Amino acid sequence: MKSIYVGNLSFDTTPEQLRELFSAHGEVRSVKLVNDRYTGKPRGFAFVEMDDEEAESAISATDGIEFEGRHLKVNLAKPRGVWRMRRPRH
Questions:
Q1: So what's the pLDDT on residue 82?
Q2: What count of other Cβ atoms lies within 10 Å of the Cβ of residue 4?
């Protein structure tokens, strides 16, 4: 199973809309819209889990398309720890 990063989402996008979009390319195991932990407002990105081959197909088919008035940025999600290993600013 692979996790797909979906960025540049409209703040009005729902999990059901993402499930419908990605289910055209295979079975969607889960959809998680990410909200700000302090305000609870959407952050404009989500993670979609699909089987390996279906995920690759979905990434190719949806990266750069217009959805809800925005051009999606879709790629394979990086492991969680990778985002926290940024170099400090000086």
A1: 55
A2: 24
What average pLDDT values come out for the chain (90 residues) when binned by 10 residues?
97 97 97 96 97 96 97 93 58
Rounded CA-CA distance 43/84 in Å is: 17
Which tokens hold the place of 34?
Answer: 């990410």
Measured CA distances, 24 to 8, 11, 45, 53 (Å): 20, 22, 20, 13
- Specify the residue for token string 């404009």: 44
CATH code for the structural domain at 2-80: 3.30.70.330
Bridge partners of 35, per DSSP, are: 42
pLDDT score at 87:
58
Spell out the alpha helix ranges (H) of the chain: 15-23, 52-62
Q: Rounded distance, CA 4 to CA 58, Å?
A: 9
Q: What are the structural domain ranges in the chain? A: 2-80
